[in-house]
Amino acid sequence: MDHQALQQMLLLSFRQEADERLQLLADQLASRAANNADPVQVENLFREVHSLKGAARAVGQRDTEQLCHHWESLLAAARRTPALLHDHNIELCRQALHLLRLLCNSQPVPVAQRLQMQADLDVAATGQDWQQSRSAAAFTQAAFNQDTPFNQDATFTENMPFAPVALAAADSGRIRVSNQHLTSLLLLTETLQQLHLETAEQQRQLKQLVQDSAVLCKLQQQTRLYERQLRLLLEPLSATQQEPLHKMLQYLEASGSGLDQLWHGSQRLQRHAARLSAGLAQLSENMHSEMQAVLLVEGQTLFSGLAAMSQDLAQQTGKQVQFSATDQQLQLDKRIVDELKPVLQHLIRNAVDHGIETPEQRQFAGKAAFGQLTLSLSQSASDKFELKLTDDGRGIDLPGLKQRALAAGLGTAEQLDTLSDEEALQLVFQSGLSTSAMLTEISGRGLGMAIVQDIVERLAGQLSLQSVPGQGLTISMLLPSSVSTFRALLVRCNDRTLALPLFAVESCLRLDSSAVQYTQNRATLLVEARVLALWRLADILQLPPAAASASPSTSQSSPTAPTADQQHVVLMKVRGESFALLIDELLGDQDITVKSLGPQLKKAPCVFGATLLGDGQLIPILDPLPLYQKARQLQSGAPAAEEPVRQQIRILVADDSFTSRALLKSILETAGYAVTTANDGQEAWDLLQQQHIEVLVSDVEMPKLDGFHLTLKIRHHPKLENLPIILVTALHSAEDRQRGLDVGANAYLVKSGFEQESLLDSIRRLVYTLHP
Q1: What integer is the mean pLDDT of 211-233?
Q2: What local confidence, expressed as pLDDT, does residue 81 receive?
Q3: What pTM value is reported for the model?
Q4: How far apart are CA 162 and CA 159, in angstroms?
Q5: Residues paired with residue 573 on neighbouring β-strands, in sequence order
Q6: Which of 390, 389, 420, 385 minimizes the C-alpha distance to 402?
Q7: Are 204 and 613 a contacting pair, CB within 8 Å?
Q8: Distances in Å between the alpha carbon of 497 and those of 487, 533, 560?
Q9: In 593-694, where do the E strands start and end?
Q10: In 221-327, where do the E strands start and end?
Q11: Closest alpha carbon to 133 in 125, 141, 148
């Protein structure tokens, strides 16, 4: 390699190293404001600047080395006196960092500006105020009239020999690999894993062949006992009669010998295949482990640049922020780190822009002027980690969020009022909905949180929020440590094998057919006091019916195959919404490798990838969110042709218990009714005056106005006296039942023995009297 090519290579390597070190310096300076007397932080700053100076010297970057040298002088003084790095000198360090970025990227920096910065650093190192000592004009003139000591240093010339060893020493034992090469290695590793699976399947088939051959050989040995007897029986026969029988005996003898050879040969092949499969398995495992080690990076890499970013945002918004980050020295998959960086950047923008208050607002609320922004990384399980971002700002204004959701058409006022705080927080993930009061260049477009949720779910992670008004917001992300393998549940529908991501699967059930309830041509399932919508997976995917004859893979009885009166159900959960899928057969769960569909099938509905099983089957991997969205479209579609189209019946549910109210609302809406809710009897009475309600489902024990008195008022109202009323209550005594009937209730259901079909049947009978 010639001198010029070597120089270009070293410069490229230097810039890559400089970018990393400058980013670390920016983060350390940003967190420095939070604790300006920590000698450990001063030591870290000094070492980074010293290492950058050495790297610059190795590639002949004189201006960069000089500036680092003067900055190093200030930091060396601060090592002895950490308090020397006060706010003014921290600002000077930030200005020096800015100039170094320009120099390391070969951008023009005026000589006077660089020399002024070096002089200011020298002044600050003596403990004096560099701002008072600065005299830019005089210093600039002096700089042009005389050379600096560095200009007289004969060591730095254009013909200076390069020292690649110095660069290697900065990070010994490591090399840089391009993303393209790393991706190629990953594909090769996945191919090796697939070959291992196929080889293991071939070895299994050979083993079965040996067992089958052994059975045939045993039978052939038994036939040899009768061969001599057959020959004795042939002697009385004529030669013409003996000839075909002798030929048959010769064939049996030859086939027996061939069968013996086949058996011994298959044994040798099976042993060889077993050794090959074991070796390939070991090689695949080692390759996978090594690639995992290559892909793993320090968890603190995730924090790079975030401290400096928070400081810049705070300056832009007129706020004061102290950023801190903690980790447990975890190692994470580089691909996950790359995906999460834009997520954290957006969350920090949100926190600083409209989470943390201005210093004046914070002091008025009794808080410190500096807002606290904390990022923590911890091990949650052997294969999972938790990333948590916490701020002590104003939190999320839930009433304001509901108002914005109402304005955006994300629900009616009644629907939004019935949401719990946890459910209301999920509104921030709706695309186009923002809690920001105005649109700024930092935030306010309402797209970021939806994108954040998409990224976390694509990584098979879980996202949760915890907001305390006036005290702050905590955003937690539970994520896998690696994306090299993917755990999936394999199911069968209409003779087709499909994979469901296991992170979206709550549980798998085998239920009697009677557990499925059908109301208005819609199937529901009651699981642990939850009424879940139920769809056939084959219907959602519009799979053609299974062939009349069983396929080889399903012809044998399976321990997971349902009987005629049983059905398999998979409970799924997507973005807080639970639903149930009816399938034909459960095949178990296993680790799979996800293959991209390619541009031709990129828009295939409900499918985001595919995997190859050991027997060569190409299995589609279903995407839970589009699957649920498509299922809801089926539910909200036109009713069955045999059912007449009728206007939705409006039902009012009155109950002071949120859980009971939500359960009743879910049952009735799933059955196709329009539901309005009230928190107590008085609110129900007010709604009856304002809206057209056709059925009332009410609790009895409620504040302000109980169910008995509510029923009595309705029966004495001329316009409401015929309103059907169903009381659903925990009061189960005969006296309570009688009182319910005395005040005019049409039905009285006890919660302890409550069944959804009883409620729906009561409503159907009452509604039929109104709409025959």
Answers
A1: 76
A2: 85
A3: 0.48
A4: 9
A5: 578
A6: 420
A7: no
A8: 15, 23, 14
A9: 607-612, 618-622, 650-654, 674-678
A10: 296-298, 321-327
A11: 125
